[in-house]
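FYI - complex with adenosine-5'-triphosphate, inputs then prediction.
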Amino acid sequence: MNAAQDPAPDGGGNPVRGSGASRSTGEAPSPVPGGGNPVRGAGGGAGGGAGASPALGVRTGLGHARRAAALAWTSGRGHVVGQVVLACAAGLVPVLTAWFTKLVLDGLTGPGATVSALLPYAVALLVLGALAGTVPHLAGYAEAELERRVNLLARDRLYTAVNRLPGLVRLENPGFQDRLHLAEQASRSGPGRLVTSALGLAQAGIVIGGFLATLMTVSPVAAGLVLLAVVPLVRVHLDLSREQAAMLWSTGHGQRRELFFARLLSMPHAAKEVRLFGLGDFFRDRMLAELRAVSAEQRRVGLRQLRGQGALALLAAAIAGAGLVWIIGEAVAGRATVGDLSVFVAAVAGTQGALAAGVRRLAAAHQSLLLFDHYEAVRGAEPDLSLPSHPMAASALGHGVELRDVWFRYGPEQPWILRGVTLSIPFGRSLALVGLNGAGKSTLVKLLCRFHDPERGSILWDGVDLRDLDPAALRERVGAVFQDFGEYDLSVAENIAVGDLSALGDHPRVEAAAVRAGADAMIRRLPHGYDTLLTKVFFRGSAGDEEQAGVTLSGGQWQRVALARALLRDRCDLMILDEPSSGLDPHAEHEVHTILREHRTGRTTLLISHRLSAVRDADAIAVLADGRIAELGGHDELVRAGGRYAELFEIQARGYATAVAP
Ligand SMILES: Nc1ncnc2c1ncn2[C@@H]1O[C@H](COP(=O)(O)OP(=O)(O)OP(=O)(O)O)[C@@H](O)[C@H]1O
């Protein structure tokens, strides 16, 4: 499998794991290579959306080629120039070698041959031999170095483009994930390979041109014959390369699913259920089924390539054989010299070799262009949220946040999640949002952070529609503990500081946040305190590497770290707490809610929790059901009303009362 086919070069752990691996978060499954947790994604495959295989028009192809060349040029001008020089040298060496060999042979078989007369040719052949030995190595190094440089710049540009996407619409789309995966492959070697392919083509052109000119001096018929063989070669190789690119595209899903099942079999997150439920063979069979399907497709294309290339090889051999018989006849008849014969043999072999190499380069360039199309598509992806041309800065919240008749669904073909939600969170007040699983609570959080926009209705920040604000400025004013918060393979201090990067290295600030979240004592007990790595991914197991050994935190301990991360933004205007204590023990939960209650005082807060004891003292409680706010009021008021909230509260309270009853 070549680099372009490699479905997942990462092979390692996730740099950030969504928390709550075994909880249902309602997120769409995302078995993206190097991305989502496979356990969370276990509900299904990558989903659809990949669409048809790509095909490039001439104009688009030329545009891509120009941009790829510009990328390579920017990455390393010196290396591009070096490669041009080396390509010219590599093209000229075989032609000159054949020509000087002819001169030596003709000199030897001609009248009055002397060593001194032949010495310059011999020296030339020596130099050419030295060049023939060194140029390929130099070219190989220059090629690899250019690819490394291009990779760096192309990756930088690719992920800058991904970071520029303001919302989650594209990242949550499996079709976009497929493109991104291919774009990453393209960025790794695509533009560099395009340049080296173009230079390889030029090199083949020099070899072919040189040999054809040489052949013309021997026989224009032979030169014409060799030239005629070019057309079917080019055609067949281009068809094969198109088919190869289409195969890459069509097997992308299968490769991702195969990888997903393979990781399920090896990742510690999944190991418990895999062992307890005896799922090993089940997932292995699924993995093998995917692999078989991918292999069958690769085999089909491979066989076609074999047939095409076999036919080409036979054609080449037939031309070479016929030419050889002919030139021997000419030499026997005295119409050609031994030197002519040698140059003819070298020319036929050299032309055919260069032709095959050139066509292979052309096919590689074509394939790189098709992959580069994905790179360009991701780089040129329009923002997934409509951004105002003159966004307003989000002012410090003074009045509150208001949802007005908000309707939302994840796509036109998806069901409505919110169907006219009207709700306000007044400044300085706390609102608790409760509802059954899948009611849309976390979705509402995503809208408040403007990861998505409502399809109808609006969300107002002090009366200003979120769509009129700069999303980044808005998010600076929001602090959050997401239900599926990130667990980063970083140190504890860094895991907290990512809540506000200005706190990176500011230990007093980080520790103060941890103290507020009730995490400080737990952190101090870790082997390296705040510097302890919260991952074992980087531990190689060698002596002296203990600093990298890392630890594995429990779910509740992670939750405290995530809470500290959110509390780092203590001056934020809106604090969103989506199930901030679901993994905590009763003591810890009580402690955390006491902390949060204090923290909430005078702050604008949205609290989501299934533990109704945790939300009862919020200023207001809203019940989300059937996509609407079904009930709104204080705890006592809602209990008295005897509606859904009262029913949920009664069920929970009864559970506790029964448990303590004598
Ligand atoms: N990215 C997504 N694409 C498509 N549908 C989604 C996506 N995220 C969530 N959903 C769907 O939206 C609905 C609401 O999910 P959401 O996570 O908002 O519910 P919730 O009230 O937070 O549930 P829970 O209490 O279980 O956390 C669910 O039916 C879920 O399947």
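The longest strand covers residues 416-426. The chain has three domains: 63-379, 394-477+573-662, 488-571.
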